[in-house]
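Blackboard transcription, Thursday session:
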Amino acid sequence: MRRIISVLMENAPGSLSRIVGVFSQRGYNVDSLCVAPTDDKSLSRLTIVTHGDDKVIEQITKQVNKLIDVLKVTDLSDGHHVERELMLVKVATRSDLVRAEVKRNVDIFRAQIVDVDANNYTIQVTGTSDKLDAFAHTMSQSTEIIEASRTGVCGLARGEKALRP
Amino acid sequence: MEMMSGAAMVVRTLKDIGVKHVFGYPGGAVLDIYDALYAQEDVEHILVRHEQAAAHMADGYARSTGKTGTVLVTSGPGATNTLTGIATAFMDSIPMVVLSGQVPSKHIGEDAFQETDMVGCSRPIVKHSFLVKRAVDIPEAIAKAYYIANTGRPGPVVVDLPKDIVNVLEEHPYQFPDDVTMRSYNPTLKGHSRQIKKAVKTLLEAKRPIIYVGGGAITSEASELVTEIAEKLNAPVTSTLMGLGAFSSVHEQFVGMLGMHGRLEANKAMHNADCILALGARFDDRVTNNVDKFCPYASIIHVDIDPASISKIIGAHVPVVGSVDEVAKQLLKEMGKIDAKAQTAKLADWWEQVNQWRSRKCLDYKKDKNLIKPQEVIESLYKHTNGDAYISSDVGQHQMFAALYYPFAKPRRWINSGGLGTMGFGLPAAMGVQMAHPEAVSAVVTGDGSIQMNIQELATCMQYNLPIKIISLNNRALGMVRQWQDMNYKGRHSSSYMDAMPDFVKLAEAYGHIGIKVTKPEELDAAMAKCFAAKDRLVFMDIEIDQNEHVYPMQIKFGAMDDMRLSKTERT
Ligand SMILES: Cc1ncc(C[n+]2csc(CCOP(=O)(O)OP(=O)(O)O)c2C)c(N)n1
Ligand SMILES: [Mg+2]
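(Written on the board underneath:)
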């Protein structure tokens, strides 16, 4: 099953490699990984999308929690949560017809064109991973995708729940 | 504030922490630190002959005392040579701090001479590591390293020190940190009260309970408490290879070591138990055999300081996160007074059954007129040390014979590489033990294969006057490998026998020690007596044993805990 693990850790050299190390060393999957300092610059927040059965997920959270630099670990997919991912995608726009079709789909998906060049548009789209997949699929049907880059999922629990030191 | 060089800070911090011994080997990146060591007498440096041995010595020192062992090595090959020692300590949760030199900061990443990414190389086998960037950070990094190494579930910590920050020519203010606690690191020591209640209820309802003791009981110095629990419950007690001595092996409730080479009665009692109290043990694959067939009738109470160990292999019915000593105190309090008579009556049938398994006497073996049996060597060792020595071991058949035939009555007396199974561990570990306990008898049970993996340390023994007793069970073979080949590979002894065996007596003598060769059963007793009479000398006992002896009992692959071979021809 797909799971979203959220980790709060010291923003210290080596912390990230230790987390990644736990995954490779113990054979866990990393589907995506998103990391940056939090509002408190001494801390980093990391969101890992992984998959596995309950026993594997329990081990992942425990093994990550065991790292000295890690303050808190939570499985966001355990409860209600908000998750978002951002994708930048550059598509070919070689004719007016394609340009119009791309623009129409950008509107439907509530994406944004953030850069325009003679022969291509760069589009920014945010949402759940499914939505990004759907958008990429739609684009690939109307034109050629030149390149795309995704951030990986980041997420927060809904309501009162929070991951704080 | 006192001003001093980074190198002086390293040594001063060690002193302020209370470190008395450092095991190490010098080289370019740590010459400044060695210079600082030269100028003082608080911290004694022990020069090994190979950095792997430095780590094993620090490890043996730690296992026999509970104190953190310290290693100091240079960058590159010095550092990588310690990796096997670090991994050995990591697998068995042994507190150790490894100070490694590193190339100057500005050269890190340039593939400089003797540069390796020590923090990276050691990452999967350390509890934590530090790459220190500034001299003023040295005291805090080292103090934290010791704190992390020896709290919670202990383990090795690496502190990598670039050469420029330990430069003897630059001075910086020294301040020992007042506080080394970290917001991100708070090991749980006390068990959850609801789980304690549940555990006690389960234990008191059990009709066929067993206590399964592991290394965690030794780490947390919980021997007396574990004994108290066992006696209160009148339950049989078994121990892992790592836990031997936590509960006295001569106690009448002890049913022996369990697992792959466990005693029949221990594995039988586990398999048939209706309640297992696991204290600081981790359901290792060398214990469980086939997990799908593991102990089908038991409610499992699993006490461990590491939450990740609980339900990792075998699901626990009552998980209790906490240190064995704290949780044992809680369990005892919750149990209150138990009617001893009623408890004895309740377990009478269980004990009758256990005693019946015991009566099979699975450790019995036949002596031979001409060939020395490994078992009788260990029995003789027991006799000549009054069962009161520190016994280190290498890895192989001899290790299992030692574990099975030398009953350990006290914790921290049995020093072996259980988790990693590192050949070459024994001699340096016994040296670390001897450094920590100069007056005690420190013996190592080893094999002709293992002893050659760190034989160079005989020189270190000479230099520091370490009167180790080396009991080498010489079967002219990598016996354990050979046993597996006999059992699973139709006796095809692929690379498991050793040609060109050295003359170990002459070898010992070449290093300045005493060597004794024993080939006949009737010589054994006198030779052993001679060995232990030489109190202040290292004695190398090269004992030629029966080459064809196998270690039994032995679990049958893919079977349940109690599916065992009892000899070459008998199985359960
Ligand atoms: C460093 C290392 N290499 C290989 C092994 C695999 N191994 C386990 S036991 C063994 C044989 C040990 O031979 P010896 O020390 O003579 O002991 P014996 O089994 O003969 O008593 C080997 C090769 C190991 N445990 N450690
Ligand atoms: Mg051998």
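Lecturer's comment: Chain A touches chain B at residues 9-10, 13-14, 17-18, 21, 25, 55, 58-59, 62-63, 65-71, 165 (CB under 8 Å).
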